[in-house]
């Protein structure tokens, strides 16, 4: 009889840990530079970013450090910083 409360407690803790950890796993899985496609015109022409572009830049801000470390994206970093600044999105200090 004493095993049942212990089992319920352990199951509850496990579910809680899964729920707390789930947003972190989902958040890291959403870092995909192709999601910045609404900003393609801004990157190529240097025009002012649209509100849709800025919304996407804001939603991808947690991915900036990952993007900055990607050597394939190096040619776009300077312009990317300008777009983020135009949208009012700060660039984090990446380690």
From TrEMBL:
SUPFAM superfamilies: Bifunctional inhibitor/lipid-transfer protein/seed storage 2S albumin
Keyword tags: Lipid-binding, Signal, Transport
Entry-linked InterPro entries: Bifun_inhib/LTP/seed_sf (IPR036312), Bifunc_inhib/LTP/seed_store (IPR016140), nsLTP2 (IPR033872)
Alphabetized Gene3D superfamilies for the sequence: Plant lipid-transfer and hydrophobic proteins
One GO-annotated biological process of the protein: lipid transport
Domain Bifunctional inhibitor/plant lipid transfer protein/seed storage helical per the UniProt entry, residue ranges: 31-94
Signal peptide span: 1-28
GO molecular function, one term: lipid binding
Pfam families (alphabetical): LTP_2
UniProt cross-references to PANTHER family, sorted A to Z: BIFUNCTIONAL INHIBITOR/LIPID-TRANSFER PROTEIN/SEED STORAGE 2S ALBUMIN SUPERFAMILY PROTEIN, BIFUNCTIONAL INHIBITOR_LIPID-TRANSFER PROTEIN_SEED STORAGE 2S ALBUMIN SUPERFAMILY PROTEIN
Family: Belongs to the plant LTP family. B11E subfamily.
Protein name, UniProt field: Bifunctional inhibitor/plant lipid transfer protein/seed storage helical domain-containing protein
Species the sequence originates in: Zingiber officinale
């Amino acid at each position: 009889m004493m095993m049942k409360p212990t089992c319920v407690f352990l199951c509850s803790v496990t579910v809680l840990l899964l729920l707390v950890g789930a947003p972190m796993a989902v958040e890291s899985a959403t870092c995909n530079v192709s999601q910045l496609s609404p900003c393609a015109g801004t990157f190529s022409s240097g025009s002012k970013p649209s509100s849709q572009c800025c919304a996407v830049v804001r939603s991808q801000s947690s991915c900036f450090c990952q993007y900055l470390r990607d050597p394939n994206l190096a040619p776009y970093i300077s312009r990317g910083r300008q777009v983020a600044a135009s949208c009012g999105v700060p660039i984090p200090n990446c380690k």
